[in-house]
What we know:
- The protein is built from 16 helices and 13 strands.
- By secondary structure, it is an alpha+beta fold.
- It folds into four domains: 2-110 and 498-515, Alpha-Beta Plaits (2-Layer Sandwich), CATH 3.30.70.1050; 117-147 and 248-294, no CATH class; 148-241, Chitinase A, domain 3, CATH 3.10.50.40; 312-438, no CATH class.
- Helix 5 packs across helix 6 (260-294).
- The longest helix has 38 residues, at 458-495.
- The two termini are 27 Å apart.
- 17% of the residues are buried.
- Residues 432-516 have low confidence and may be disordered.
Amino acid sequence: MKISTEQLDNRQVVLTIEVEPERVERFLRQGARRLANRIRIPGFRKGKAPYQIIVNMVGKNAIYQEVLDDLIQEAYREALSQTQIEPIAQAELDDIQIEPLVIRMRVPLAPEVKPGDYRSIRVEQEEIEVTDEEVEEVLNDLRESRSRWVEVDRPAQYGDLLTVDIKGTADEETVIDQTDWEFVPAEDAEAEIVPGFDAAFIGMEPGETREFTLTYPADSNSRWAGKDVHFVATLKKIQARETIELNDEFAASIGDFQTLDELRESIRSELRSEREREAQAKHVEQVLDALVENAELVKYPPILLEQEIDRLIQDQESRLQASGLSMDEYLKLTQTTPEQYHESIRPQAEQRLVRNLLLDAVADAEEITVTPEEVEAEIVRMLQSMAGDTREQMGALLRTPAGRQIVAQDLRTQKTIERLLAIARGEVEEATSEGEAVEPGETEEEAEASAEASAPSEDEESVEVKEAARSEAEVKGTAEAAGSEAEEESQQESEHPPEEAPEAQEPSEAEQAEES
Length: 516
C-alpha cells in the first residue's frame, strides 16, 4: 500500500491510502463467493459459479459494495500501524476513488494543550460583608409575609388594599369597567398606569364616589396615548396590613429561636453563607477565565467539540425529563429547530471543553491523583441522599468500571480547581529554576538550607520511592480498570468502522481452477 499523510492545524491528519490492485482483487473474489452463496445463478450450484460469471450477472459495483467496508477497515488498520498514528476517536471517510482504490480519511488526534504559566495567576476573592440594614430588611420581609390584611374605617392611604368599582371612558369608548377591583395605590409615580391615578384615591372614604379625568402619556404604548380618560370610581372597602411587633414572640413563630437577636444572627449567618457561595462560584469562574487567558496553546479536533455539544444536549434532555417535558416539546415552546439549538450551545460547549482540557493539563503538571479509597468514599457520599431501589441501582452503576472512572475524573477535576484557587490566592509554594519549592516570602537560599536539613537518608529515600511507585501503580491500575470498557469501545470505533472485517484468505487452488 502507498500511504501519505497531511497534518492539519486543528489536530487532524488526512490519511491517504492507495490499495494495491492484488489486495483489491482478492477481496473482490471473496465478495463474489459470498454473493454466489446468497443468490441463484442458473447452471451452477450455490457458491460454485466462476468469478467472471458472477461479475457479469451482478456487476462489479455490487461486488465492491459487498467488500468495500471490510477492505477499508483492513487498509485503515495497516495504515495506522505503519504510520504510528494514534486516533483519539473514529476517523471520518473524506473520499474514496475506485480503480485504483484510493481511500482518504480524516483522523482526529489527541489535543495539544499547553497551560502556560498558570502558577502566576493571582485573583483575589471579594470580601464578604453583611450589614445591619440588610438583616433588618430580611426581618421586615418576614414580618410582611406573616402579616394579613385587616379592614379599617378611615380615609385611604398609600399602601392600603382598596376594593373599588371603576369605569373609565375615552371618546365614548370603554377603557376600564371593573367591579370589586382590588389594587394597592403606590406613592411612586412611575408605578402608576396613568400619572395621578393612584393619588386620586388617597383620602377617599368607604362608600365615596369620585370622578376625575387623566391624560395618558403621549409616549406610552397604550392605544389611549395622548387621550383624556374620564373615570368614575366608588370605594367599597379599605384594608391595611396589620402591624406585627418585632419581638421574641415573633422570633419564636419563625423557627426554633428564643430571642429576636437569635433570629437576627441566624439571618446574618444565612446571608453570609449565601454570599460566600456566590463569591466562591464567581472566584472559580475568574480563575478559570484567567487559566484560559494564560494558556499558550489549546488545539483539539472538531469531533471533541461535537461530543461536548452532544453531552450538553443530553444533560438538557435529562433536566427536561425530570420536569415532565420532552426535548421536542421544549423546542416547540421556544420556537427553535434542533439545528438552531445545536448551534446556540456551541459557545458554551467550547468554553467547557477548553477549560476541561486545560484542567487536565494542570492536573498532569501538578501530579494530582485520586485513590480508589477516595473514589469509594465519594460514591458513598453521593448515595447518602438516596434510598431504596434508587440507591441500589445508582450504587451498582457507580461501582462499574466506567462509573468509577467518571467519579475519579470528577474528583481529579475538583482537586485541580482547588489547587488553582490556592495558587490564585498565593497560598501554593512557587518553584525555583532548580525545581525546588519556595514558600511565599522565603528566599531561595533559605529554601536550599531547609531542603538540606530535611533531606532523607538513602534508606529512607529508597523506602519513599518504593511507596510512591506502589501508590502510583495502584492508581494506574484502577484507572486502567475503570477505562477498559470505554477504551475498548473507543478503540474499536476509532480504528474500525462499525463492522469487523473478516480476515482475508487466499482462494484454494481448486477454487481458482474452478473460477478460471
